[in-house]
Design goal:
Blueprint lengths: L2 H28 L6 H24 L3 H15 L2 H13 L3 H26 L2
Subcellular location: Cell membrane
Keywords: Cell membrane, Ion channel, Ion transport, Membrane, Metal-binding, Sodium, Transmembrane, Transmembrane helix, Transport
Catalytic activity: fluoride(in) = fluoride(out)
């Protein structure tokens, strides 16, 4: 691992975090719900994109450096397991158990399906 690759992954992570902030703000300003919809959209789209990057890497020979920059860096900064976990706990504390269940389990299932779709498309 070279210093340039470490720097590129760090920059990718920063850009992913900014993309997450912008998309979350956009979703939350357009759709007024008391459910963390922005985080769900981010994690599902991020899972799809990581599946796509992985599929491209497996079949079309995406270089390992680009896998690190895109997968670990950008998509690692873009997706947010910790926020999703916090929001699920917050919903449960508010006694919004169905919303908490959908946020925890539903997001996981949607993200897995999105990752599978991205992987399949990337392998075409």
């Amino acid at each position: 691992m070279t210093p340039l690759l470490v720097l590129a992954v760090a920059v990718g992570g920063g850009l992913g975090a900014v993309a997450r902030l912008v998309l979350d703000g956009f979703v939350n300003s357009r759709v007024r719900v008391s459910f963390p919809l922005g985080t769900t959209v981010i994690n599902v789209t991020g899972s799809f994109l990581l599946g796509l990057v992985t599929g491209l890497a497996m079949v079309h020979g995406l270089p390992p450096e680009w896998r690190a920059i895109l997968g670990t860096g950008f998509l690692g900064g873009y997706t947010t397991f910790s926020t999703a976990s916090y929001e699920t706990v917050r919903l449960a504390q508010q006694r919004r158990y169905r919303a908490a269940l959908f946020n925890g389990v539903g997001m996981l299932l949607l993200a897995l399906a999105a990752a599978g779709l991205g992987l399949w498309l990337g392998q075409l």
